Amino acid sequence: MWFKWAGAVLIVLATSLWGNQQAAKMRRRVRQLEEFRLALRLLMAEIGYTATPLPRALEYVQGCLGDERVKQFFAEIVLQLGRPEVGDASQAWLRAVEVCRGQLSLRADDWPLIIRAAAGLGGLGRESQLKQLEAAESQLAGHTDELGRPEDARAVEEAVNSGASILATVHGHCLGDLMKRPSLAYLLRQTLFERIVFLSRRKGPGTIEEIYNGETVKSRLVAEEMGHVV
After folding, report:
1. Which of 78, 44, 85 is nearest to 62 (CA)?
2. What is the pTM of this model?
3. Could you tell me the CA-to-CA distances from 126 to 41, 93, 115 in Å, in that order?
4. 58: number of CA atoms within 13 Å, CB side?
């Protein structure tokens, strides 16, 4: 009897640990994507406004970042730039991707956007470089949603069912906007989130615009599916 209880406790602890690990992995990925976005904005400022030589600009960007893994990525670019066989900053960037890919928490579909930022870096005119960096930063913004894909929604559901607490972020203008996205609508229908809080910059970063109860959102979804207006 005691063996059965001990086995049950071990199973609960293992699933809870797995859920917490999944949640931590999602948080690390989003934090690193935000760091890359910051890095690209800083690099655009250095190239566009101060005309800083690229090696110095990359060193400056590295010093401004908080995530050690992302800092190491930019340190690797600077290191590669100093090697005689590396032709330009674009090649140095791609080599840094090869070296650091396994050290970061990014998904496979994040990397093409990181690689895109290298296109023409150091080899094109200033305006062309800025356009490439701006395009890459804009696309990364869409990838910072923690719940952008069905796989993410399933991971959240499994983590919550394993006993983990989840704090997630998504981009959306209003509740109706979120409900149009199948993976998010599924999570809201399952009442996996106790509160849904909408933030804006209207009165400064973190301005609270609306707060919804999870059960209220679920009721609204059900009513809309039945053809009722809420």
Report:
1. 78
2. 0.61
3. 14, 17, 18
4. 22
The answer to whether 122 and 90 have CB atoms below 8 angstroms apart is yes
Beta bridge partners of 212: 196
CA distances from 123 to 77, 126, 128, 197 (A): 15, 9, 9, 44
Q: Which two tokens stand for residue 94?
A: 């791609």
Beta bridge partners of 64: none
97 within 8 A of 115, measured Cβ to Cβ: yes
Of residues 194 and 98, more confidence is placed in: 98
Rounded-to-integer distance, Cα 51 and Cα 209, Å: 40
pLDDT tens string 133-177: 888 888 887 766 556 667 677 777 777 777 767 777 777 777 777
Tell me how far apart the alpha carbons of residues 189 and 218 are, in angstroms, rounded to a whole number.
Answer: 5
The Cα–Cα gap between 186 and 133 comes to: 34
